[in-house]
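As a warm-up, study this chain.
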Amino acid sequence: MAARLFFVAASAAALVSAQFPAPPSNPIQGCTTRSFMIPSWLVQDVKRSADGSVSFDVLSRVSNDTTSLACPASKAGSWTACSIQGTAPSNGTLTASVQVAENSTTFLVNQTWTCNDRGPVMTFSAMGNSSAALNFTSPVLIKGSLTSPVAITPQYPEGPEGHDLAGCTARSQKPSWVLSTIHFTDEPGDGVTSTPFQNFNLIVTNPANGYQASCMPGGSLGGTPDLSQLVCAGSEFQSSLTGRHTITTQASFDPATMTFSLNQTWFCDDTDASKPLQINAAGSTVLPLNCTTEPAAGTNQTNRYCSSTGDVDLEGKLGTVVTLQAYSLTDPVAPFGDGCTLTSIFNPAWEFSAFEVDDNDNGSGGSNDTSSASVSFDIILAAQNRGFQFPIAITQGNAAAGAGAGWYECAIGPDGGDDLPLWPYQCVFRYTPATKELQLRADWACRDLDLAHPIYFRGVTTTTVNSTLTCETAGGQSQCTTADPAFTWDAKISNVTWGMTAAAPGD
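Now compare it with the structure written out below.
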């Protein structure tokens, strides 16, 4: 049966590719972005000679350059350095070593390269290692850790649920699903005192990978549930670590015949991560539901309520099976814009909003005397890729010791201590009412590339609140805010420094 599955994959690939172009070999564009996100290599075309020597090619997944190496025989368990055969990388240096044991070979790669696609030349260094069985003939993925310009190990997605679950590929040869918690509601309505209403929901479980999806009706132009286009979602709806490929489920329910139809695409690489499979299957069945009826209040209509008494097995028909690019199931998705780290390095700026000046001495925000005034604003790093992050409120704290006249500590609002991204974790600011100049010295951290090893940034900002402030006074206290409550503005961060150590409080 395994041979049959791989045969289907080979025969279907051309057809599917014609309809849905395969993703590029490296969807993450730009040398710099790839260097930060996937510093890694593929070891390919490994040859082991009878005398114990080893040769192989190393493909950089940053530059797509291939380097051929040869390694002399050595004592089992000891490391031996490899020499480059032919042309060496033109951009930087690459060294490699191997360690041959009784049942495996371990490859170690260390590379330095440069990128200039984001402006000034930036030098990167990374290293990594990986092992493979002696009889393993597929490409070997080496995930690298950056050692320069920062020391991080980029995190990789977990991949679609169950892709590496033992038996995923084998069980997918005879696709099936388990349907559970099935409910159907049919309230015809009379169109006068009540409107027609139908609802349907169930849980779909794929035994091949353990994936569960909850299905419910989608909306329609009339605002009533559409049972012909059910919306199905599972763990990928709540996870940001799915990666390039996500499980998709299309489903429908026909109330007239009680027929449920399903089409699902999932992924398996449990037998060989370098040959991941995209698997599609479909099936339909008449649901054995138990229904009760009751008269609708105030009408001559009868409502119907149906549910299942147990699980329902749905057999599927295997559709197209496509072999994807090596190790692509755990590759990160291409970013649609710079996140925290790249924004902080290449285009650092704060986005300000909700600016407000409260004055207990009726200063109306326009006096140079700030002794009685209190300033507050919202702030977030002006990254293109913010996810679901929102600005944080900054209010005026105590006078900042040693910072100079008029400087105050930032009192960072709710959730400010929760280590969330795109916010400063400490800062001081000064506001000059006469010129509406706002100065900010802030420290922030980025964890979007490596949760365990954040990169710490520091920078200064000088900006002007370029909006009319409107003031209201009550009880001797004035409150001045921007004329447009939704007014926001960006301000560049200058003198940015960054490293792997957090600044001490008040530093």
